[in-house]
Write a structure and sequence with these properties.
It is a single chain. A six-stranded mixed beta sheet has the order 1-5-4-3-2-6. It has a single domain (3-112), classed as 3-Layer(aba) Sandwich (Udp-n-acetylmuramoylalanyl-d-glutamate--2,6- Diaminopimelate Ligase, Chain: A, domain 1), CATH 3.40.1390.20. The chain is built from five helices and six strands. The protein is of the alpha/beta class. Helix 4 links the parallel strand 4 and strand 5. Helix 3 packs parallel to helix 4.
């Protein structure tokens, strides 16, 4: 599923768009524990989280994640947005719970990481 379709499905919006609106994602991972995110060892994973702080962007960069969905109506801080832009990471904000986001994406064919 491509990013712009994910945004539409989740009734979400871009905080910043790193030109990845046509990037395709087949696998997603939901976590608020950034230590768990660092265990990801496959490319092109969509990260779903409710953790809205600078560590989310730093962790995504180290794990080579290029798209983050912030759930639970969490808002990206200006520092997050700046660092995400520097590292070409797209941030999407969504009002839905992480469970709801995962269910919608799963129903559209996105597989869980584990």
């Amino acid at each position: 599923m491509i990013v712009k379709d994910i945004v539409t499905l989740l009734d979400a919006h871009y905080v910043n768009n790193s030109g990845l609106e046509n990037e395709n994602y087949d696998v997603a991972f939901a976590s608020d524990l950034m230590s768990d995110v660092l265990t990801i060892d496959i490319p092109n994973v969509l990260l779903i989280t409710g953790l809205a702080n600078i560590q989310t962007i730093r962790t995504a960069d180290m794990a080579e994640i290029k798209c983050i969905v912030l759930g639970r109506n969490k808002k990206a801080t200006p520092e997050m947005i700046e660092l995400a832009q520097e590292n070409e990471i797209t941030i999407i904000e969504c009002a839905y719970s992480l469970f709801h986001i995962c269910g919608l994406l799963y129903n559209e064919g996105i597989d869980p990481l584990y």
